[in-house]
Write a structure and sequence with these properties.
Order of helices and strands: HHHHHHHH
Number of strands: 0
Distance between the termini: 55 Å
Number of domains: 1
Oligomer: single chain
Structural class: mainly alpha
Strand content: under 5%
């Protein structure tokens, strides 16, 4: 098991999400979007199935989380939203994801927010991969093979808690500015 985890951690070190400029600049149908987004998120899909389905896309459109497609065709903007939603929904509620995307887009613009998201996801995955891969760092953190799942779950909880607090504080700030 240890060797498989180390091999997977090496893949995490090399994992890259496509930047805004690298997303396709042509229209796609929903089945193509599903295939493309799931391909981009292949490392996550290896652990958790159904990152994105056509019915999920329809629900996100109905919930106004993503723009409505034009003539059933999706564009670059949809891919960026769906990649972010596909990853963030693993740790935040859908309303929190929606609020977080809206907030970050207001700060950095949609292109900038998406590229920043990619950078932060890659940085977080690299940090986790280094913790798995680097035995010295593990000893320093007192993470044993028996406790590593608990260690990462506890850290996920702590990071989620902080992210929720930041999103809530930003929502309060935006509500006050709208009054």
């Amino acid at each position: 098991m240890r060797e498989e985890l180390k091999h997977w951690s090496k893949m995490l070190l090399d994992f890259e999400l496509p930047r805004w400029e690298e997303l396709p600049d042509f229209e796609l149908y929903s089945d193509q979007v599903v295939q493309l987004v799931n391909g981009y998120l292949h490392l996550v899909e290896e652990v958790e199935k159904d990152i994105l389905t056509a019915s999920m896309i329809n629900n996100y459109v109905k919930q106004k989380m993503i723009p409505k497609p034009e003539k059933k065709k999706y564009q670059k903007i949809h891919l960026a939203y769906l990649i972010a939603i596909g990853l963030l929904k693993k740790v935040l509620t859908i309303p929190q994801v929606n609020d977080g995307i809206r907030y970050q887009s207001e700060l950095s613009g949609l292109n900038g927010a998406y590229n920043l998201f990619c950078e932060e996801v890659e940085r977080a995955l690299k940090n986790v991969a280094l913790q798995i891969h680097d035995r010295e760092k593990e000893r320093e953190l007192t993470v044993t093979e028996e406790s590593q799942a608990l260690y990462f779950a506890a850290n996920a909880f702590a990071h989620k808690l902080i992210a929720n607090k930041i999103v809530n504080l930003n929502n309060q700030k935006m509500e006050k500015s709208n009054e």
